[in-house]
Structures are given as structure tokens and as C-alpha cells.
Amino acid sequence: MLLKTNIEDRLIKLRDKRISSETILKEVQEILEKNENERDDIKARLSDSSEENVNEFNLDKVKGENIFHIEDIKKLCIDYRLRFLNANFFKGDFPEEAISEIRNLESEHGISLQNFKIVAPAKLLKLENADDPLLFAPMGNDYYYLIHKWGNDLHPFRKALMWPYKTFENLVFSVFVLSVILTAITPLHLFTKGEVTNQEYLLMFLFMFKAVGGIVLYYGFAKGKNFNTAIWNSKYYNA
Fold first, then answer.
1. Quick one: DSSP state of residue 66?
2. Helices vs. strands in the chain: H and E counts, helices first
3. Parallel, antiparallel, or unpaired: how do β-strands 134-140 and 117-120 relate?
4. Which residues are paired to 148 by β-bridges?
5. What is the pLDDT of residues 107-144, one digit of tens each?
6. Beta strand pairing status for 83-86 and 117-120?
7. Are 140 and 54 contacting, i.e. CB atoms less than 8 angstroms apart?
8. In 3-state terms, what secondary structure has residue 134?
């Protein structure tokens, strides 16, 4: 009776004819050690705070959709109150997928990437949370190459919620609108005799505007906050 063929045994015999198991184990260990050393080197460069260096990408191999000008990045940061800083300011752990993407790019382009940049909310540059960071490498002439994105997407209303902090004019307009709304919903008839006059509405609006404005100013000065246009590339946490 013919015995059935065990393909695992056949595979082992074929391999052993080519190379011994001890030799292949040594080769694998060397490859893994080299891989780990390369990943450690990338992590060290991600934490490097040296002056900006331009990375000489092979333009025949770059993806056009991954190239962004500094003005595009600046507008994104201002709209969503994000920071664009050196990657060494990021206090979380860079995901292994980002490390792998850097290795792939370096292998493909034959370069060693330097001076990584990251776009993230200010809190992520101090904490270990991760909400949608973007990792870039400079290409020169204010262009940056997007390497990897990870984490969770930003809240869909973040742009609207951050709009008042965009500029001083936006903040004043927001305080004005909020004061109008508060005035409109205040039951003035409970505090007056007879019909509420326009003058009384105006006085209530001025009171609301002063109160809301005072709270906003107090919070801003107490927390050392600034407008989006001033902090998008600031390294100071309380800006």
C-alpha cells in the first residue's frame, strides 16, 4: 500500500538539501537583528531635534498626493487648532506601521530620512494620546512629504468648535452672537412690569456681552491661550 505524502516532511527535506536548519536559523537571526537595529535607528532620528535638513527624494518614485506645501499645512493647523512641530515633541509612541513606512521609503529612495515633522493637537505633543497625527519629512522649498497617518480621526465638529479661536475678529463675533442668543432666551418679562422695551433688550445685551467677554478674557489670560494663527507652529504648550 502506498503511503500518503506528507508535504511538511517533503518541504523539510528540500530545505535541508539546500541549507541546514542551523545555518538558516543563524541567517534569520542576523536578518531580524539588522531589522531591529534599523528600526531603533529610525526611532532615534524621530526623536532628533537637530536643525532642518532637506531629504533628497527620488522624484520619479514619490506619490504626488503625499506632497504638501507649508501653506496647506498651515491652513489645516489654523482651521483645526493643530500644531506643526518637529517630531521629537511628540510624547507618544510612534506606531510600528510608521516605522515600517519610513524603512520602505528609505529603501525605495536610497536615503536616510531626517528632520521629521508632525501635525497633531497640542495635547498630543505632551501626552500619549493619539488623535490623527500626521508624520512628514521635508523635501525643500517649503514642501513636505506625508509619510504616515495613524490614530483616530478628529471630531467632525472640531473645525466649527475651533473657529472662534482662529482670530481675534472671530472671537469677538462669536461673543457677539452668543450674547444675542442669551439675550433672546432671557425671560425679561419676569423682571419688568408691562411690555419689554427695546431699550431694556439693549441693556440686557450689553450686560451679556460684557459678561461673556469677561469670562472669555479671563479664561484666555488665565490659561495663557492664543489664537490659532499664532500657535500653529509654536512649541510652547500654553500658547
1. G
2. 8, 5
3. antiparallel
4. 135
5. 888 888 888 888 888 765 653 344 568 888 888 888 88
6. antiparallel
7. yes
8. strand
Per the structure block, which three cell numbers stand in for 109? 529612495
Q: Which alpha helices (DSSP H) does 6-20 contain, by range? A: 7-18
pTM score, whole prediction:
0.64
Q: What is the pLDDT of residues 10-28, one digit of tens each?
A: 777 777 777 777 777 777 7
**CA-based nearest residue to 145, from 60, 49, 69, 52:** 69
Q: How far apart are CA 28 and CA 14, in angstroms?
A: 18
| Identity of the residue numbered 26 | K
Residues in the chain: 239
Query: Over the chain (239 residues), what is each successive 10-residue block's mean pLDDT?
Result: 67 74 75 77 76 79 88 89 84 83 89 87 55 81 86 74 84 90 81 74 87 84 72 65
Q: Exposed, middle or buried by CB within 10 Å (0-12, 13-18, 19+), for 94?
A: buried
Other beta carbons within 10 angstroms of residue 25's beta carbon come to 11
